[in-house]
């Protein structure tokens, strides 16, 4: 398997996760929202990440001690792929957690319309917006 093929496959798996999350929200189906999108698919992606790190981390140049070394580290295709899968797994897991919390708080599912795409595309911004919505609900 090449890094490019694994990149494509991991993207498809993540897309299934996001579609499962959307379906779980629309259908109010906890199994799709929490188990499939919130647990099973992030676990599968996390497993792929762990394998990539265990196999390729030790041979990659660079590290986390400086920005230059981080840049060098992510020039290695297998390590860059691991980083990408890290994003896919965590963004989906965070999206599922936010969806569960918004719905458990009794908020309209419409709040998730900006939160989830932002979480998918720009993880920390979606997380920030989701937490802001949830905290504002507690203060009201």
Report on the architecture of this protein.
The chain has one domain. It has helices at residues 3-26, 30-56, 67-73, 77-104, 112-121, 123-139. The longest helix is centred in the middle third of the chain and has 28 residues, at 77-104. The protein is globular, with a radius of gyration of 17 Å. The chain is built from 6 helices and no strands. The chain is an all-alpha fold and 140 residues long.
Main pleated sheet: none
- The amount of helix comes to over 70%
Order of helices and strands: HHHHHH
Low-confidence spans: none
Q: Beta-strand percentage?
A: under 5%
User: How many DSSP-defined strands?
Assistant: 0
Count the DSSP helices.
6
Coarse structural class: mainly alpha
Number of domains: 1
Rg on CA atoms, Å: 17 Å
- Shape designation: globular
Distance between the termini: 52 Å
| Average pLDDT score | 95
Chain-wise SSE layout:
Elements: H1 3-26, H2 30-56, H3 67-73, H4 77-104, H5 112-121, H6 123-139
Descriptive terms for the model:
single chain, 140 residues, mainly alpha, 0% strand
In short:
Helix content is 81%, strand content 0%.
């Amino acid at each position: 398997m090449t890094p490019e093929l694994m990149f494509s496959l991991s993207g498809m798996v993540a897309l299934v996760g996001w579609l499962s999350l959307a379906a779980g929200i629309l259908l109010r189906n906890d199994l799709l929202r929490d188990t499939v999108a919130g647990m099973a698919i992030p676990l599968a992606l996390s497993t792929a990440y762990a394998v990539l790190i265990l196999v390729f981390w030790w041979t990659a140049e660079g590290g986390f001690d400086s920005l230059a070394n981080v840049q060098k580290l992510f020039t290695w295709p297998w390590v860059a792929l691991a980083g990408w899968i890290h994003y896919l797994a965590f963004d989906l897991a965070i999206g599922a957690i936010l969806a569960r919390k918004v719905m458990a708080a009794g908020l309209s599912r419409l709040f998730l319309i900006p939160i989830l795409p932002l979480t998918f595309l720009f993880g920390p911004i979606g997380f920030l917006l989701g937490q802001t919505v949830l905290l504002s609900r507690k203060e009201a």
